[in-house]
């Protein structure tokens, strides 16, 4: 296909506004798939994956559109991922396009993700085609929706806004024509050194890393020795091709094209979204700017519950193969034995990993309270330490400076929710950085510690906004923070799995609550056992776990001598059930 007849685009919309329906209709109108297949929701691709052994989730589908003049165009419809944890990946897949269809449900109007997606498209300098969908619906308010779109962007006038029904097919031809007329054809020299942007990367146990790439410069040939620039990984590709929507093998992909590469690389972390592919010989001088390595936001301990360490080890190794964002290393705890310290994108991600260990491997794991990384400077040492485990947090009298990582949190929500959202963000130590309004929508930016956002912030935001708010986050610098270390001792023995690092303002009430809860959750013994919470050498909260049987208690108080003996005695034989850690998570 000549470059001027290629269009690369994506559909962006708020959830349920009709993105999949429109995608199906485009594929059907261009005869990429038959009507029957369309009704079977081909975009649900498990079957395709099974049939072809290639991981093709969120694949880019190539369609051929023949217009009224009989001219043929190659329409590459690029799918974008949907979850907030993967915001960076959404913007990467958008930068593989030259334009987007911004779809708005006429029964709902402009909503939070409409605005958030619009912003991402603007940031990527894309042509935007505004489309009002579901005009067949009796509840449709086309006029109001049109006014909201105009409010969002003054260029979205009635003349440029399309009115369609993705369901009945009404107006689909106008969409196909607008793609041809308004979205620019790709530019880029097919004879230049190869430069392709990786906008999707999946790991397949048989094929290794399978990526999707947009070729911006040069020509990718199936014979080429390739180089992925971020980590300087070299390989001979096993296969290149495109999806129509089945995988079709080709011998070359030229500037302007979009396609897949089966790299054969067996390390799932070797190539990630945002990377640049070039050739080993005569390659591109510079990669695309703005590459971000996927880094965990929070860390937590993972320990076998009942089962064997070796089973957990195997399961974790397997799991990490198809989840490049999940990282781990072995860790040992006095209280919990051998286990792992896992790195996750957020609490939600941690929950998914836990559920998968259960569902796919039948393993119950105990997870400790998650924390972010801390950056601390200690006396007589210039270089700061990066700490991922609260146990390694230095004693207070050695500390010079303590910092924690921040994010910029961009929240989009309806106007009337401003107060609720500000209250929530301020409780989480959010500092207001920016506030804009777009029509009925607010765009609020906060600078906030990762540790605050990682705990369920998204769920709370959903709840105070009745599901209307959206959240996207970007990493920001480390910032100074008044963090303190809290140690818990049960029966005079420090429990390493119960060491926490948190903000000074929260530690008092946290200590009170955890000592009270532990009193009820820790299995009882023959003697009464004190639970003590210590901060900076001072016990700030205490409770007593009652003895197993009243009769066994030797007249109440433990003697000084007994205390002494226990302190010197064996390490704690204290059992910590998952309920203890669940309760702690619950306390936030
Ligand atoms: P997610 O994949 O969940 O983000 O949703 P989506 O944006 O892909 O929406 P989807 O295409 O699944 O459509 C959501 C619902 O709206 C479905 O029940 C569709 O049948 C319906 N729908 C989509 N387009 C139209 C339309 O033009 N008119 C009417 N009446 N219903 C539509």
TrEMBL record:
It is a peripheral membrane protein. Pfam families: EFG_C (PF00679), GTP_EFTU (PF00009), GTP_EFTU_D2 (PF03144), LepA_C (PF06421). It is found in: Cell membrane. InterPro entries: EF-4, EFG_III/V, EFG_V-like, EFTu-like_2, LepA_C_sf, LepA_CTD, LepA_IV, P-loop_NTPase. It comes from the Bacteria. Its EC number is 3.6.5.n1. GTP binds at residues 16-21, 133-136. NCBIfam families: lepA (TIGR01393), small_GTP (TIGR00231). Required for accurate and efficient protein synthesis under certain stress conditions. May act as a fidelity factor of the translation reaction, by catalyzing a one-codon backward translocation of tRNAs on improperly translocated ribosomes. Back-translocation proceeds from a post-translocation (POST) complex to a pre-translocation (PRE) complex, thus giving elongation factor G a second chance to translocate the tRNAs correctly. Binds to ribosomes in a GTP-dependent manner. This is Elongation factor 4. It comes from Weissella tructae. The lineage of its organism: Bacteria, Bacillati, Bacillota, Bacilli, Lactobacillales.
């Amino acid at each position: 296909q000549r470059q001027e007849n290629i269009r690369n685009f994506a559909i962006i919309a708020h959830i349920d506004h009709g993105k999949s329906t429109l995608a199906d209709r485009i594929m059907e109108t261009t005869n990429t798939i038959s009507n029957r297949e369309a009704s079977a929701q081909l975009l649900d691709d498990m079957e395709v994956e099974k049939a072809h052994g290639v991981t093709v989730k969120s694949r880019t589908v190539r369609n051929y559109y023949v217009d009224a003049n009989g001219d043929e165009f190659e329409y590459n419809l690029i799918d974008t991922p949907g979850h907030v944890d993967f915001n960076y990946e959404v913007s990467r897949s958008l930068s593989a396009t030259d334009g987007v269809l911004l779809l708005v449900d006429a029964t709902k109007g402009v909503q939070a993700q409409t605005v958030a997606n619009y912003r991402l498209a603007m940031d990527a300098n894309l042509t935007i085609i505004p489309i009002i969908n579901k005009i067949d619906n009796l509840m449709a308010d086309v006029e109001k929706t049109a006014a909201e779109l105009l409010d969002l962007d003054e260029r979205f006038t009635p003349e440029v806004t399309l009115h369609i029904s993705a369901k009945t097919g009404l107006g689909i031809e106008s969409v196909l024509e607008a793609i041809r007329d308004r979205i620019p054809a790709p530019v880029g020299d097919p004879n230049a050194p190869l430069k392709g942007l990786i906008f999707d990367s999946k790991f397949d146990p048989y094929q290794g890393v399978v990526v999707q790439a947009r070729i911006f410069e040069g020509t990718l040939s199936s014979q080429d020795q390739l180089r992925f620039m971020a980590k300087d990984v070299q390989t001979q590709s096993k296969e290149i091709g495109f999806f129509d929507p089945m995988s079709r093998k080709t011998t070359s992909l030229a500037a302007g094209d979009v396609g897949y590469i089966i790299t054969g690389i067996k390390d799932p972390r070797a190539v990630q979204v945002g990377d640049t592919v070039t050739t080993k010989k005569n390659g591109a001088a510079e990669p695309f700017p703005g590459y971000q390595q996927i880094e965990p936001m929070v860390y937590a301990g993972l320990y076998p519950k009942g089962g064997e360490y070796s089973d957990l080890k195997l399961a974790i190794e397997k799991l990490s193969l198809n989840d490049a964002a999940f990282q781990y290393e072995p860790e040992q705890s006095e209280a919990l034995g051998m286990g792992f310290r896992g790195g996750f994108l957020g609490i939600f991600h941690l929950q998914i990993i836990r559920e998968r260990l259960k569902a796919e491997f039948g393993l119950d794991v105990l997870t400790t309270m998650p924390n972010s990384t801390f950056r601390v400077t200690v006396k007589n040492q210039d270089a700061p330490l990066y700490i991922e485990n609260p146990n390694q947090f230095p004693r207070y009298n050695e500390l010079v400076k303590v910092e924690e990582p921040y994010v910029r949190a961009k929240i989009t929500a309806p106007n009337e929710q401003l107060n609720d959202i500000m209250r929530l963000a301020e409780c989480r130590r959010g500092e207001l950085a920016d506030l804009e309004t777009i029509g009925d929508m607010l765009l609020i930016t906060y600078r906030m510690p990762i540790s605050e956002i990682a705990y369920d912030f998204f769920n709370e935001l959903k709840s105070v906004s009745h599901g209307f708010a959206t959240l996207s986050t970007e990493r920001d610098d480390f910032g100074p923070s008044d963090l303190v270390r809290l140690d818990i001792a049960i029966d005079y023995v420090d429990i390493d799995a119960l060491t926490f690092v948190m903000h000074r303002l929260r530690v008092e009430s946290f200590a009170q609550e955890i000592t009270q809860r532990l009193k009820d959750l820790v299995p009882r013994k023959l003697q009464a056992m004190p639970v003590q919470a210590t901060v900076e050498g001072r016990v700030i909260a205490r409770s007593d776990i009652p003895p197993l049987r009243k009769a066994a208690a030797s007249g109440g108080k433990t003697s000084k001598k007994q205390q002494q003996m226990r302190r010197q005695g064996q390490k704690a034989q204290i059992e910590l059930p998952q309920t203890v850690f669940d309760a702690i998570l619950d306390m936030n």
